[in-house]
Structure formats: C-alpha cells, structure tokens
Design brief:
It is a single chain. By secondary structure, the chain is α/β, with parallel strands linked by helices. 48% of the residues lie in helices and 15% in strands. The radius of gyration is 16 Å and the shape is globular.
Length: 196
C-alpha cells in the first residue's frame, strides 16, 4: 500500500487547519450520524472504493469533516489528495490543452482517496464540467472520493449544464456512497456572532 503523500493542496490545508473528528461540534448538527462517521474513520470504505458525500448549507462543517477523514486515511497509510472542484477543473483543462489528460487521470487513479471540495460553489465552464464528469466517472468503483457540495443533487444540473450527464454522474457517485445531510446554521457565522 502506498504511503500517504501530501500534495501542496493538502499540505497547505494541514498547516492552516487542525481539523480532526474530535474537534467537530456534533451538537451543532444533531441529525448527523456520529457513530457512522467514527466508523468511516477506520477507512474500510476506501478498501471497498466507496464514496462519502457531505451535502448542505455553507458553514456547517463539510470541509472540516472531509479534511478530518482525509487525515485519518493518511494515518492508515492511504494516499490522499485534496482539490476544490474549481481547481481540479482548471488542472484538467490545462492537461487537455497540453495533451496529457490520460497521463493525469492515470496518476489520480493511483491515489486511494480524492477529496473534492466545494462542488457547486463556483460555476464551471461547459468544458470544465465535462472533464470533471469524466474524472469522477473514471474513479467509479476504482477509487474512493469524499465530495462536499452546498447544492442538493437535484440542483447539480447548474454545475454540469446537462441533465443526462448530471443524472449519470449522480447515479455513479451515490451508488456506493455514504451520504450525510449537513443542514443547519453556519458554524462560522455563529462564531462571528459570539466574538461580537
């Protein structure tokens, strides 16, 4: 098994943020299944090439939980990469223009866990959306992903611009997935109010 390698994107997050499961305030989202999340921290889902999806409002801890689970995966010896949806689309479009997209996809398929953060936060170009679809479809049943989005699945056509493509992608991503609804008040907003 490949030892964990932190790409620049993940290293920057680790140095800036100290998110762990212990530090997450589960009381802020009482409906969140804490025992299930703690079970997922054992990383058996990675062996089964299953996905984890955090869907819900901004500021509810989706990125916190994805980073925390990414750290747990690293501690278990898995390779992890962290990307925002916008950043990976830019990388894919650049690779396509340089005729190295297949090489890039092969490299990413070797990674045990890809964290794809902020799906739906930034509008994607048609080409970017198609490349992101291809990337996610290539990992189907081959490698695990943790995905965060502020949009319900029914709204993903806003991201991928095509109803059939969106339906096919959601079908693949959710087929073997652990889905968590992260609906509640913004944790960051609460902290700002408390500081005021």
């Amino acid at each position: 098994m490949e030892l964990c390698s932190f790409p620049p994107q993940f290293s920057a997050l680790l140095s800036c943020h100290k998110q762990t499961l212990d530090q997450f305030e589960f009381s802020a989202i009482p409906s969140l299944n804490k025992p299930k999340l703690l079970q997922l921290a054992r990383c058996e889902y990675i062996e089964k090439a299953e996905n984890i999806m955090f869907i819900g409002n901004s500021g509810t801890g989706k990125t916190h939980l994805s980073i925390a689970l990414g750290k747990e995966a690293c501690h278990h010896g898995y390779s992890v990469q962290f990307w925002t949806a916008a950043k990976i689309c830019n990388e894919l479009m650049e690779a396509q223009s340089q005729k190295r997209i297949l090489q890039l996809e092969r490299q990413w398929l070797k990674t045990d866990l890809i964290i794809l953060d902020e799906v739906g936060f930034v509008p994607l170009s048609r080409t970017g959306a198609e490349l992101l679809f291809q990337f996610c479809a290539a990992r189907y049943e081959k490698g695990s992903m943790i995905i965060t989005s502020n949009l319900e699945f029914t709204e993903w056509t806003q991201i991928f611009k095509d109803e059939q493509m969106t339906s096919a992608l959601v079908d693949r991503l959710t087929h073997r997935a652990h889905i968590f609804a992260m609906n509640g008040d913004s944790y960051r907003f609460k902290q700002s109010i408390q500081r005021s």
